[in-house]
């Protein structure tokens, strides 16, 4: 796969785009393809590639030409062709990522100044503001950011493949630094050829669907590849900046911690059971202990300083003397003896909670540490001693990173959240009340009657669950999960499972039901003597539909006015967490309405918390794609309502974005630093600065959101196109939604329940399906009609332009919409409709509405941003699209034809494999597809 286009002039790394690396990788794929499959297939791939590239260069979509070209290709050749373009897309992504990091370093090395999203730029901004240094120091001490890794079925790449891709990335980095040495370049290219050959002979698809245990293991892999190294170093850099710029000693041991849902999220996933929760908790703890033990053992070998040359502190000598290491070979090496003793105590601590302790065996049996804090204290003794005799560099570079790691990751690694749907809680509580003689039919009670019963249960200490009663599998399973969570708290501490998230929370009773269930296992406790109620974890309602977001502040106010629940919040140091859902709100109301209701709900929730005198932590359930809350994190955080961040940020990391952000240390650093920097800025500064115009802008946005909602609902309900109730048929035919369920990418079913209703479909496959057909309506539909209906005068049109220029929220919304519009291709979407939608009338009506709305939205986006180019503010993504999209065109052509054959009854194994491969490769090429 070659390209005759001459490469751009290459004078510095700054002017070199990723094209040269992509051409090199394409040539290597072509070489392997020719060697493995022959000249005929190579020539077919080359003709297809050239057709796509030439057409895109001329501004055309080569659907008709590619369709004719591929019509005569047999299935086996099509599968090889799909694989060729799939591997090229994946490697092109890698080349782009490497180039992005190369450019960043180039500018940094040449003194271009700190870039937005870095801690240095944030401190420049904060110090240059009207805030005094004490206020900034307080914010730095208070900041706490937690990315929460979740398992969702859009991570289409196998871990085996990711390992090879990491090798390719390292080789491309090395190649850029080779300095033109022919010998070294030849050596690197040979290694790249081996990596490409390995990929070509590696199956893209898994043989079986992922299990939850596989998802747990895949997530843990990122700690070894990047997180263990990155988070402590980022904390050190924050400490250094605070000292240098503020003269302040950082009093914040955990500005960044990690979270997870994998193994604790039961909502719609029947495979998350009590044994799975136990596995998740123990796997995380095992990795934390392994990391600490390996580092302690390594330090016991490295810190070889001799008493004949240095004088350690008395405290260090005490640690050495307590180590029970009487080897004459280490008699004058107190640091080695001290570290061996610390290793032995940590090993003994692990042995009390783990069946099998990882890492090297200890030299002796010593008393276990009582907590990780004791190890932190001992490591502090080591660093202070090293500094006392001029070995501060060793303390800073070798011992302090481990001390920080123990503080950050503890013995639990990360906080594992539990999540379940409110409907399940209702069913379980109803059974417990019925069996326990509390209420015969809890489900039939109104809200006030439910609250009254639940309050009574939260006012006494007696349990509901009887060991002598029989319960349904559902209830028994839920109670077993909660008991396992309580056990995890006892073994690994309260940081192990810090939150319980309630999906589809709509009322006070939805939250009190969880409190009652937690009381059954001791995670919520009622003091027998005083009656005081406390909770060992946060209970977090998740508001995710448009209606629930609109009522969120009312629900929270009612909760906080509930006397027993107010005590629970007080027991959590006056903090209350609320999760807001980007995915389901988008599916429910469309992009514009979802964005506005999320913004409005945050303002209202903050106000409700202030009225109640408590502090609120907002947990953002964002996905990878714009339709699920994705987009540049820095701009997204700064576009939040003032006061809504308040030093605390929790945010989900989902799907293929987890690998994109955490597979390598450089990308992990960039992502985590961006989250931390933006959270600090949003907490300290009023990013809006709207003054008296704020109310006017928000009133305008409310009107636009309602107009967009009516347009969006008119489409999906079918009323706007004269086909009521038939839109779901259109969606299921034009997208490969049914086939997506067969792709072995995740453990969770595509729907919460067996149903053809869009409401019951998970938001992830909803967005994933539209992206495969390149229509992407979750990211833009309804906007054009809303602007049309609102801007009926010149003054109103000017107001919208003004809002784009002045309001970060409105600008971020339009910028993210531009990203989706740039990836939308109506010509490709029309091919899906023409071939796959069997009802001509339905196809013409719905696709016609989509095309008309797309034209309106593109026109308005151009007018409000001042550019016909949707990505005018993101030239890097524009270049990426130019590089990548020609290779997607043939994949779409083949996917449509394979879907047609499959739906016509062709169950050839190659047809099924081809469909699955195109799902994989298109998602890879689009990157943030779900």
Q: Which structural class best describes the helix and strand composition?
A: mainly alpha
**Individual helix count:** 38
Radius of gyration: 29 Å
Beta content? 5-15%
Give the end-to-end Cα distance, rounded to a whole number of Å. Answer: 29 Å
Number of DSSP-assigned strands: 11
Largest sheet: 9 strands, parallel
* Helical amount: 55-70%
Low-confidence sequence ranges: 3-16
Shape: globular
Strand order in the largest sheet:
3-2-1-11-10-9-8-5-4
Average residue pLDDT: 91
What can you see in these coordinates?
By secondary structure, the protein is mainly α. Among the domains are: 276-409, Phosphoenolpyruvate/pyruvate domain (de novo design (two linked rop proteins), Up-down Bundle), CATH 1.20.1440.90; 693-926, no CATH class. It is built from 38 helices and 11 strands. The strands form 2 sheets. The protein has a 9-stranded parallel β-sheet with strand order 3-2-1-11-10-9-8-5-4. Strands 6-7 form a two-stranded antiparallel ribbon. β6 (524-526) and β7 form a beta hairpin. It is globular, with a radius of gyration of 29 Å. The relative contact order is 0.10. Residues 3-16 have low confidence and may be disordered.
Ordered list of secondary-structure elements with their pairings:
Elements: H1 19-37, H2 39-57, H3 63-71, H4 75-109, H5 119-127, H6 133-142, E1 144-149, H7 159-176, H8 182-200, H9 212-246, E2 259-260, H10 274-302, H11 314-321, H12 334-351, H13 372-388, H14 392-409, E3 415-416, E4 418-421, H15 422-435, H16 447-457, H17 473-492, E5 499-503, H18 508-519, E6 524-526, E7 533-535, E8 538-543, H19 546-550, H20 552-560, H21 563-571, E9 575-581, H22 582-589, H23 591-612, E10 615-621, H24 633-638, E11 648-653, H25 656-662, H26 665-684, H27 693-716, H28 727-734, H29 737-740, H30 763-772, H31 783-790, H32 794-806, H33 808-823, H34 826-836, H35 840-865, H36 875-884, H37 889-903, H38 909-926
Parallel strand pairs: 1-2, 1-11, 2-3, 4-5, 5-8, 8-9, 9-10, 10-11
Antiparallel strand pairs: 6-7
